[in-house]
Design goal:
The model has no long low-confidence stretch (mean pLDDT about 90). Helix content is about 45%, strand content about 20%. A hairpin with a 2-residue loop joins strand 5 and strand 6. The protein has 7 helices and 9 strands; from the N terminus they run βαβββαββαβαβααβα. The chain is globular, with a radius of gyration of 16 Å. Pfam families: Guanylate_kin (PF00625).
Length: about 180
């Protein structure tokens, strides 16, 4: 992969606000492209195939893994997630900054393979706020919420492995700080 300075990883625990931060980044700057991940999970209400994710079967996902067609991939909350390599390369070669909004395990894989990629870990303001954000989604059952909260503790403990760690108190402030990091 060429020009890894144009590859930016945004990660953090589920519910930290990655999607909201990324949406505002994309709305603010036109030369940033959000990589679309493939997943085996079912779409949430309002999600569209090829826009939010590429929703694929377990069989297709495993075939892509075997063919080494992912920049990274991980299993999370019983489903597989991965970043298709071909589209990332195409966008970087076209002059875009490629933003990866991915789970912590996938972000670790990319940092190990491509240490030059810029990585930003988002922290929640508190454990209580994180739980509130996850519950307010209204998309998951109690056991899945508990699993995400347990997983968040593990992920937060690994935040020191990333280039920058930002607490997402307010989206506007977080986005401003990310733009400052990109410029530097």
């Amino acid at each position: 992969m060429k020009n890894l300075k144009k590859l930016i990883i945004i990660t953090g625990p589920s519910g930290v606000g990655k999607g909201t931060v990324v949406k505002q980044l994309l709305d603010s700057k036109k030369d940033i492209w959000l990589s679309i991940s493939a997943t085996t999970r079912n779409p949430r209400m309002g999600e569209k195939d090829g826009v939010n994710y590429y929703f694929i079967s377990d069989e297709k996902f495993k075939d892509m893994v075997d063919k080494k067609e992912f920049l990274e991939w991980a299993q999370f909350a019983g489903n597989y997630y991965g970043t298709p390599l071909s589209t990332v390369n195409e966008k970087i070669e076209s002059g875009f900054i490629v933003l990866l909004e991915i789970e912590v395990e996938g972000a670790k894989q990319i940092k190990e393979k491509f240490p030059e990629a810029l990585s930003i870990f988002l922290l929640p303001p508190s454990d209580e706020e994180l739980e509130k954000r996850i519950r307010n989604r209204g998309t998951e059952k109690e056991e899945a919420i508990k699993m995400r909260l347990r997983r968040a503790k593990y992920e937060i403990a690994s935040s020191d492995r990333f280039d920058f760690v930002l607490t997402n108190y307010h989206v506007d402030e977080t986005v401003k700080r990310i733009f400052e990091i990109i410029k530097s």
